[in-house]
Amino acid sequence: MNTILHITQRQQWEQAKNLGSYRADSLDSEGFIHCSKSTQIVKVANRFLKNQKDLVLLFIDYEKVKAEIRNEEAEIDELFPHIYGELNIDAIYQVIDFAPGENGLFELPQEVVDLE
């Protein structure tokens, strides 16, 4: 299975389940939902979300996403998957808690390690 990952607030995920689709704030402001590959998720979390709590990590089946996915350069020589449009809930096959350690930094969850 080709998996992409997305970090979101637990409250946003709960709302998405009730609505049947997920819309990140970046979809309205930038036109796409930021996602990451398994090799990128810790770097992204520690750069942008250090010390944030009450997060979940969405495991998304690339093949089931109905919106357009573009792999675009966000940093030099690194492509990040971006979803252009709402994310259909049935493309999300697993959701786990994603909390920083006592030092405020994130580590790679075993569920992500198992993808590699």
* Count of distinct strands: 8
Class from helix and strand fractions: alpha+beta
Q: What is Rg?
A: 13 Å
Number of domains: 1
End-to-end span in angstroms? 11 Å
| Broad shape | globular
CATH topology label: ADP-ribosylation fold
The appropriate CATH architecture is Alpha-Beta Barrel
What does the model show?
The protein is of the alpha+beta class. The chain has a single domain, classed as Protein of unknown function DUF952 (ADP-ribosylation fold, Alpha-Beta Barrel). The chain has helices at residues 10-19, 25-29, 41-48, 110-113, and strands spanning 3-9, 21-22, 33-34, 55-61, 68-75, 78-84, 87-88, 92-97. Strands 1-4-8 form a three-stranded antiparallel beta sheet. Strand 5 and strand 6 (78-84) form a beta hairpin. The protein is globular, with a radius of gyration of 13 Å. The mean pLDDT is 93.
Could you name the key traits of this structure?
116 residues, alpha+beta, ADP-ribosylation fold, 3-stranded antiparallel β-sheet, globular
Quick recap:
The protein has a single domain, classed as ADP-ribosylation fold (Alpha-Beta Barrel).
Topology:
Blueprint: E1 3-9, H1 10-19, E2 21-22, H2 25-29, E3 33-34, H3 41-48, E4 55-61, E5 68-75, E6 78-84, E7 87-88, E8 92-97, H4 110-113
Antiparallel strand pairs: 1-4, 2-7, 3-6, 4-8, 5-6
